[in-house]
Structure formats: structure tokens, C-alpha cells
Amino acid sequence: MMDFVLDQYAPYVWSSYALFLAFLVWDYLSPRLRMARTRQQIQLRLKREAQRKPTGNAS
After folding, report:
1. pLDDT tens across 3-57, in order?
2. Please, where are the H alpha helices in the chain?
3. How far apart are CA 37 and CA 3, in angstroms?
4. Cα-flanking dihedrals φ and ψ of residue 48, to 5°?
5. CA 15 to CA 42: how far, in whole Å?
6. 59 vs 11, 21, 39, 49, 50, CA distance in Å?
């Protein structure tokens, strides 16, 4: 009969849990960071466009 020592699998199991947890954190944060960056770029673009256009009609 084969003698399995589960302690020899501990590094594999814990590293698998760590990688899975890291992926979950990345999967949670990545879209939020991208959305924040996109909102910031839109705000900057709107500010630049507002500065370019004159506010009054000088016709």
C-alpha cells in the first residue's frame, strides 16, 4: 500500500490558494481602477473642451 504523506503537498496547496486569492483580488480591482481612470480622462477632456469654446455669443 502506498504511504501518502499529506505534508509534502502543503506547498502546492498553499501556493494554489495564494494564486487563487491574488486572482480574485486582481479580478475585483482591475475594472474599478480602469473605470476610475476612464472617468478621470473624461473629466479632463470635458474641461479642455470647455476652455476651448467661448462661453458667450459674440456674433
Report:
1. 566 678 889 999 999 999 999 999 999 999 999 999 999 999 999 999 988 766 6
2. 10-52
3. 54
4. -65, -40
5. 40
6. 76, 62, 34, 20, 19
